[in-house]
């Protein structure tokens, strides 16, 4: 074989090796991209901003209890803001999470965090939610099927019928029933759960929720409009006060002797 033939043969071998290396790199890059896309939340999903929706977290108003848990993976880990911690059940299905609120609450959003990429067979696949005033009258209000979920999951409560607009869940107790796991897993992992209600302490002189331009579309699941009845009541009180001045004209000159007792100066008794 001549020197030219040897050079040509080595060149062809180098080209084939280069193609194989490029193919492997491309396959690894594609696989990595697919894995990252599965492990991240849908970028098209709207960002949940409680303050922008006029909501506040009310986990501090509740006592959380679970049907079972492994040591070191209980309620404290469930309520931690560290999503690397989680509640792990340690008993027979269904696994229960029961939330007792200190008073009757008007819930506008319920969210819980699960991660199939990390937990696999520990990830819930079928969850049912119930609520009521006590354990004797719990009623199912939502059913959440899950397929390889990653991230915060929203519980549908927009049609529960509570609140001024019918989009709130009004109750004392909420109970979460985990009936089935992926891959027929026995125990489950929940990495966080949060309850939200309307913020009753906005800036003074403003209605609940952020300021919005007239005609702006708002998600009805979270919005709340100041009822017209409250405005009518304010007008009625003002009219009653004006009528009182008309009935007692002497008060207009500064003499309030004819005014009714309920409008006089307070007396310390």
UniProtKB/TrEMBL annotation:
Residues 34-222 form the DOC domain. It comes from Thermothielavioides terrestris (strain ATCC 38088 / NRRL 8126) (Thielavia terrestris). GO terms for biological process: anaphase-promoting complex-dependent catabolic process; cell division; protein K11-linked ubiquitination. Keywords: Cell cycle, Cell division, Mitosis, Ubl conjugation pathway. GO terms for cellular component: anaphase-promoting complex. Belongs to the APC10 family. SMART domains: APC10. InterPro entries: APC10/Doc1, APC_su10/DOC_dom, Galactose-bd-like_sf. Residues 21-46 are annotated as: Disordered. Residues 30-44 have a biased composition (Basic and acidic residues). Pfam families: ANAPC10. This is DOC domain-containing protein.
């Amino acid at each position: 074989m001549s020197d030219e033939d040897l050079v040509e043969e080595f060149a062809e071998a180098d080209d084939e090796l280069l193609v194989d290396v490029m193919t492997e790199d491309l396959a690894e890059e594609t696989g990595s991209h697919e894995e990252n896309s599965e492990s991240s939340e849908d970028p098209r999903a709207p960002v949940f901003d409680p303050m922008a929706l006029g909501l506040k977290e009310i986990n501090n108003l509740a006592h959380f209890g679970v049907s079972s848990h492994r040591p070191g993976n209980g309620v404290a880990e469930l309520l931690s803001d560290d999503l690397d911690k989680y509640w792990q059940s340690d008993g027979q299905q269904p696994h229960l999470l029961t939330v007792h609120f200190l008073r009757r609450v008007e819930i506008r959003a319920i969210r819980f965090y699960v991660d199939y990429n990390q937990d696999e067979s520990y990830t819930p696949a079928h969850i049912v939610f119930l609520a009521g005033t006590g354990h004797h009258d719990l009623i199912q209000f939502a059913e959440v099927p899950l397929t390889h979920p990653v991230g915060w999951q929203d519980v549908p409560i927009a049609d529960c019928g509570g609140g001024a607009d019918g989009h709130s869940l009004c109750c004392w107790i909420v109970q979460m029933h985990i009936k089935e796991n992926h891959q027929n897993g026995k125990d489950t992992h929940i990495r966080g759960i949060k309850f939200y209600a309307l913020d009753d302490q906005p800036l003074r002189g403003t209605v609940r929720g952020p300021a919005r331009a007239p005609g702006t579309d708002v998600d009805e699941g979270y919005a709340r409009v100041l009822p017209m009845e409250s405005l009518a009541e304010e007008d009625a009180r003002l009219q009653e006060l004006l009528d009182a001045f008309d009935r007692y004209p002497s008060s207009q000159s500064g003499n309030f002797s004819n005014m009714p007792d309920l409008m006089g100066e307070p007396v310390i008794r």
